[in-house]
């Protein structure tokens, strides 16, 4: 029921014919260049219409020191879309701030995207959807993705204090960002309210890549007069030193049924790693299911795992080992943005925050469902698609392979070798072939990052039906041999240390 209502709302917003009350308010700040400092401020406030679009675009700007701020607030309409995009900006020091606050409508969609921005030193991204109200349906989406800082980076996505009279969907994602040094990623969904139509709260921090990393997702103190689903996903993050991953679902209330699910999976911490999930003081008037999954995470030295708290209400539990966790965070198929963005900020992309992708929603205990590769592909974080022709399937790369950040993409493709379902199995295998064939000198520096996914998948022994019918273990063995033959005099020692079962290819020559 919820998904149908959302579809009707979106259709009304997207295709409503022009009326005397229609209004479009747009501000564009694009393609500007400054050798020194650059400050760009844009605001759309206090407008009223029956059918209203408010949009701010700050993209493709460059400067030494850069500050981009955008604000949409105090607007009123029956049908309302509020959208801010800050994308592909370039600076030595960079601050991107966006807020949609205090708007009101009957049906309302609020969307912020901060993507593909590049800072030569430090970067700060803040995106907030705050205190907006809709009498009927409301969709709030914040996405901070594919940004790159050469030193430190901080990304905070917040959806808080919003209210919908009937049904509400709240999403806060921080995905596929890179920092050469320290990175702080935070997603917050708090104190939002919805009526009898229900509420969907989804927070994700996935596929980020710094040296030191702190990832935190919080879903707290949200209320609905109907059913409620709260989902946290912290997956596929990689760093070479210390990593802290935490998820908190606390103080949420549903008059109907409530599903709470938290997942920390497929993350890699170098020296140390801390993974924490907490469920506290959640209440349901009907049934309540709580599921927690911490799996497939790796750390070279120290690892601490904590799962605490059982929700108060009917039926709260921690899922036993072999059980399937309850469905969480999905009244409809998960949001996917079509992207052509690489770690290099120059490639443009047109994303639609409410585009749907045919996701299977499998149990996280299923090995194929839990791979970081699958999750990131389903979220649209890879610049690839399948090209079908008479000679067989191929990967259509939306960017030049030679321009890709191999430190980011190659390990992710290797993590997909455990996949047995299509198109994931084909994309992971063929993607590795393409990257290795055209990587040249970019491959060898990435070898240490590849050892972990190779070790996990080595000897998997699972056969899958492809035209070449390759075995995963054989493919990995051949890749290790290639690394040994081309990686220099210390290659074998490094491989043997991480994969003790490996035997030198030179001993068999």
UniProtKB/TrEMBL annotation:
Q: By what name is this protein known?
A: Uncharacterized protein
UniProt-listed InterPro entries: Parkin_co-regulated_protein
**From which residue to which does the signal peptide run?**
1-16
Q: Where are stretches of biased composition, namely Basic residues? A: 342-360
Task: Kindly give the Pfam families that the UniProt entry links to this protein.
Answer: ParcG
One Gene Ontology term of the molecular function aspect = Hsp90 protein binding
Membrane-spanning intervals of the chain: none
Q: Where is this region: Disordered?
A: 340-368
The alphabetical list of record keywords is: Signal
């Amino acid at each position: 029921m919820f998904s149908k209502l959302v579809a009707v709302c979106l259709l009304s917003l997207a295709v409503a014919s022009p009326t005397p009350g229609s209004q479009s308010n747009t501000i564009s700040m694009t393609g500007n260049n400054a050798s020194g400092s650059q400050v760009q401020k844009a605001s759309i406030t206090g407008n009223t219409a029956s059918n209203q679009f408010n949009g701010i675009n700050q993209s493709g700007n460059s400067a030494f020191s850069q500050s981009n701020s955008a604000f949409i607030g105090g607007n009123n309409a029956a049908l309302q879309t509020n959208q801010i995009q800050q994308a592909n900006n370039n600076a030595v020091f960079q601050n991107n701030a966006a807020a949609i606050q205090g708007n009101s409508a009957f049906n309302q969609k609020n969307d912020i995207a901060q993507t593909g921005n590049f800072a030569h030193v430090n970067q700060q991204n803040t995106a907030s959807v705050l205190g907006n109200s809709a009498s009927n349906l409301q969709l709030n989406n914040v996405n901070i993705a594919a940004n790159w800082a050469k030193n430190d980076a901080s990304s905070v996505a917040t959806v808080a204090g919003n209210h919908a009279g009937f049904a509400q969907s709240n999403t806060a994602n921080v995905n596929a960002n890179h920092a050469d040094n320290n990175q702080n990623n935070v997603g917050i969904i708090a104190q939002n309210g919805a009526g009898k139509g229900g509420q969907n709260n989804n927070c994700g921090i996935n596929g980020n890549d710094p040296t030191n990393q702190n990832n935190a997702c919080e879903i707290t103190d949200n209320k609905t007069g109907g059913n409620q689903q709260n989902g946290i996903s912290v997956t596929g993050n990689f760093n070479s030193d210390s990593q802290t991953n935490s998820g908190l679902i606390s103080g949420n209330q549903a008059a109907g049924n409530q599903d709470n699910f938290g997942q920390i999976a497929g993350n890699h911490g170098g020296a140390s790693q801390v993974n924490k999930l907490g469920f506290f003081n959640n209440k349901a008037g009907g049934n309540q299911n709580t599921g927690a999954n911490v799996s497939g995470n790796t750390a070279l030295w120290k690892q601490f795992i904590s799962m605490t708290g059982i929700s108060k209400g009917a039926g709260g539990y921690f899922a036993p080992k072999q059980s399937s966790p309850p469905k969480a965070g999905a009244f409809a198929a998960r949001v996917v943005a079509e992207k052509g963005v690489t770690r290099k900020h120059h490639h443009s992309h047109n994303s639609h925050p409410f585009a749907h992708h045919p996701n299977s929603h499998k149990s996280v205990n299923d090995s194929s469902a839990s791979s970081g590769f699958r999750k990131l592909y389903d979220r649209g974080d890879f610049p690839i698609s399948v090209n079908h022709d008479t000679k067989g399937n191929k990967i259509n790369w939306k960017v030049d392979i030679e321009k890709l950040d191999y430190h980011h993409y190659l390990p992710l493709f290797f993590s997909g070798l455990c996949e047995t379902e299509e198109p994931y199995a084909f994309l992971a295998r063929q993607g590795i072939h393409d990257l290795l064939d055209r990587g040249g000198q970019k491959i060898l520096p990435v070898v240490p990052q590849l050892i972990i996914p190779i070790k996990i998948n080595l000897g998997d022994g699972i056969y899958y039906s492809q035209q070449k019918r390759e075995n995963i273990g054989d493919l990995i063995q051949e890749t290790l041999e290639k690394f040994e033959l081309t990686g220099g005099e210390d290659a074998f020692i490094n491989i043997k240390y991480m994969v003790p079962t490996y035997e030198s290819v030179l001993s068999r020559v």
